[in-house]
Amino acid sequence: MVKALTEHRERQAQERAAAGMRWKEHGLVFTSRIGTPREPDNLRRSWDPLRKRLGLEIRFHDLRHSAVSLR
After folding, report:
1. What whole-number distance in Å separates Cα of residue 33 and Cα of residue 13?
2. Which stretches within 1-71 are classed as H helix?
3. What distance in Å separates the CA atoms of residue 19 and residue 50, rounded to the nearest whole number?
4. CA 17 to CA 9: how far, in whole Å?
5. CB contact at 8 A, 18 and 10
6. C-alpha dihedral over 24, 38, 18, 27, to 10 degrees?
7. What is the pLDDT of residue 67?
8. End-to-end CA distance of the chain, in Å?
9. Residue 70: per-residue pLDDT
10. CA 3, CA 9: separation in Å to the nearest integer?
11. Cβ contacts of residue 16 below 8 Å, gap of 6+?
12. What predicted TM-score, i.e. pTM, was given to this entire model?
């Protein structure tokens, strides 16, 4: 997990540099390409093709319940 988050931080730094003055800092870990909060509809649109490709029946919303039950 640490490796994945470190790599994500590096990619986000590149996105921040590419966005320049358009970047809006919100102190978030997962953002849009310009630093703003991700829109729920965009997350669902990204999740559905991935879910189908992996043959999963779980909705995006259900992921948080799964994560809690894994603790």
Report:
1. 10
2. 2-19, 40-54, 62-70
3. 27
4. 12
5. no
6. 50
7. 63
8. 15
9. 67
10. 10
11. 23, 35
12. 0.61
Tokens of 23: 């970047």
Q: Could you give the angle at the alpha carbon of 2 between the alpha carbons of 63 and 70, nearest 5°?
A: 30
The token duo for 1 is 């997990």
Q: Which two tokens stand for residue 44?
A: 């669902």
Taking the chain (71 residues) in runs of 10, the rounded mean pLDDT of each run is 93 95 94 90 87 90 74 60
Strands (DSSP E) contained in 1-71 are none
- In the chain, the amino acid numbered 52 is K
Do the beta carbons of residue 31 and residue 38 sit within 8 Å?
yes
Closest CA relative to residue 35, chosen from 56, 49, 21, 51: 21
Instruction: Give the whole-angstrom CA distance, residue 13 versus residue 41.
Output: 24
